[in-house]
Amino acid sequence: MGNIKDTVFEVIYSILPIALVITALQFTIIWLPMEAFVQFLIGVLFVGIGLILFLLGVNIGLLPVGEMVGSALSKTKKLWVIVLFGFLLGAVVTFAEPDVRVLSSQIDDVSGGAIPQIILIMSVAIGVGIFVALAMFRIVFNISIVYLLAGGYALIFLVAAFAPSSFVPISFDAGGVTTGPLTVPFILALGVGVATVIRGKSASSDGFGLVGLASIGPILSVLILGVIYG
Amino acid sequence: MNLQIFEGFAQTMQEVAIALLPLAILFVIFHFVFLKLPMRKLFDIAIGFILTFFGLAFFLQGVHIGFMPFGEQMGNVLGGMSYKWVLIPIGFTIGFFAIYAEPAVAVMVEQAERVSGGYIPEKLLLYTLSVGVGISVALSMVRLIYGFSLWYFIIPGYIIAFVMVRYSPKTFTTIAFDSGGVSTGPMTATFILAMFTGIAGQIEGRDPLLDGFGMVAMVALAPILSVLTLGILYSRKEKSQYVSDDSGTEAHHHNR
Asked: What pLDDT is stored for residue B248 in this prediction?
């Protein structure tokens, strides 16, 4: 029960500040109609209730599941199983992320419908998959994450030089957007699970970095599509 | 009063269900092949998934009916003001506090504290992210008012990041790059983005869509820099402790 109380307070602390800032703006500069403001306050209430349920749920659902899946994979001791499932998990989770669909319709606007939506969603999902697989590889062989990150971003800037300029901001946007509220807890826990089994408890912080690497995939995918279709 | 509270709720629930379903199926497969968990544990996890489902559905609904339309109308008013510079401090404040309410951020800072064994305190990491996102939204406002190209921020930003990586402890480097992806969740990508496109629509010569994307790109970059800065400050503190006081350093070393 203490857990629930803590979460409730945590959520109040996280939502109250932004609600107060907006309320202060409303009554000093903005003065929007009262109706809009009441609607906003109801939204704040929903966000609060939602966040409480979400955090409680993630702590007993997604996080332990991610860690258990990660350690079960590593216990097979087969590199190809770990890397293959890394790819599949990254791709499937991204494919299902609602933000990715929003992104694809926005890209439709920018490119004037040149890129078919399904190709876009597939390539973003494959992009995430490849980088999660690489991240697994990195954890197993203890390769410094700095090389992967530096290589990834160097590649991004190289491809960006050839892509139409309207694709550049949208590709970076893709990198952030695809790592949404369901992907992040799952992938974080997955990485911690794999690292804990393979490299020992003390090295479990090696499991971090998966989200960062996973963000590179979509940026590259969208830029490459820009080069092809742009 | 004409309030629209549950408009589009069915669609939101459907989207969350589609997003959560593959994870649930995957878990069931893993359960039968590898894990073979006891019933009680399965029951807990099922409850966890159900709570996550309703939680995310309510959260997104709140963002869609409350934060997003209000953000856009706010943006319209703010963009029409004659003193454009006030956008900069307002952008900082909103960026700073909006990140508090981002679901993935709450999960990540907690995990970071747990996994690092308290080496990286939850609150400290949260404030570091807040400062980063605040600065990036403020800079995006500068960009919106004066019309700089995104390149002038992004290229130096990533170059500085990779220079800083050389001086930062490894744990901070990984968390820094994770933060970039984590910070751009539904709060930023909908609420701040809606406000931003509202403002951009009021300023001559701006493309709401493209400038909006540029803002998200900046929000993904800034926390990387701020967390790396925190890492460098941490390693400096450790080194100075090494020199002055040998016995007091052990507690700070479980990240190796």
From this structure: 43
Closest chain B CA to residue A192: B115
Q: Whose CA is closest to A204, among A93, A74, A62?
A: A74
Distance from CA of B241 to the nearest CA of A (A): 23
Instruction: Give the model confidence (pLDDT) of A50-109 as tens digits.
Output: 999 999 999 999 999 999 999 999 888 889 999 999 999 999 888 888 778 777 877 777
Burial of A149 (0-12, 13-18, 19+ CB in 10 A): buried
- Residue in B31, B51, B143, B224 to test binding to A, most A beta-carbons within 10 Å: B51
- pLDDT for B213: 82
ipTM of the complex: 0.92
Helix (H) or strand (E) holding B220: helix B208-244
Q: Which residues contact A136 (CB under 8 A, 6 or more apart)?
A: A82, A83, A86, A194
The pTM assigned to this predicted structure is 0.91
